[in-house]
Amino acid sequence: MLAKRVIACLDVKDGRVVKGIQFLDLRDAGDPAELAAAYNREGVDEVIFLDITASAEKRALIVETVARTARQVFIPLAVGGGIRSVADARGILLSGADKVSVNTAAVENPVLITQLSEEFGSQAVVLAIDARRNGDSWSVYTYGGRKLTDRNAIEWAAEGESLGAGEILLTSMDCDGTQNGFDCALTKAISRAVMIPVIASGGAGNAEHFAQVLTEGEADAALAASIFHYGTVRVSDLKRHLRSQGITVRL
């Protein structure tokens, strides 16, 4: 059985890591390079760096901050926010990232997924999906959760896989920042719709929430921000708990 991954997320605004609730009421959580270095020492399996306002502000991602962060980690680093072209992605990968994450630009120009996959390999392309429940289904949002689209999250995940995405970063906007648990129903639906790995994001509050989404939600990895940033849960303790539940994780 493949090991499940524990991932730390750095939501970056104006060069600082921030965290809010349901994409709102952001508060400062520290310097991205310093936090990345700490998570590298603590044993997270990957770090995801998201420039959360780059698309909304229609600007390029902060490459210098990415490079400074990349120098601090010796584990996979995925970077997203404001990547609109192969050239943008190349710049991020050359700055030290191992993967690029696309969301808004991919929704508006799906062929970008294929272009990135053909240029860098599908393993380097993460399709990020921000989804909110809409009746009996989930709708896709873009521009950092600001814009509702007409896309269904499950259908978009399957399409993204067919276009060349190698991984799905799935964020439940309903659960984001609440610390009440991941959306296992959403995660399970997406996981069963695709063959590529799915990273669950949004709602982590304790170690058992990770265990639930990795089993009931059938996620391949689970991500957290707040509980790591503010010391609510330590990575080493989390991994011990997961192992006690029979979940295979990297030491």
Looking across the biggest beta sheet, what order are the strands in? 1-4-5-6-7-10-11-12
Which class of secondary structure composition applies to the elements? alpha/beta
Instruction: Please provide the ordered H/E string of secondary-structure elements.
Output: EEEHEHEHEHHEEEHEHEHEHH
CATH topology annotation: TIM Barrel
Quaternary form? single chain
How many domains? The number is 1
Radius of gyration: 16 Å
Strand percentage lies at: 25-35%
Number of E-type strands: 12
Shape category = globular
**Count of helices?**
10
**Biggest sheet statistics:** 8 strands, parallel, barrel
Q: Which blocks of ≥5 consecutive residues have pLDDT under 50?
A: none
User: Kindly state the mean pLDDT as a whole number?
Assistant: 92
* Name given to the CATH homologous superfamily: Aldolase class I
CATH class: Alpha Beta
Label the CATH architecture.
Alpha-Beta Barrel
| Overall helicity | 25-40%
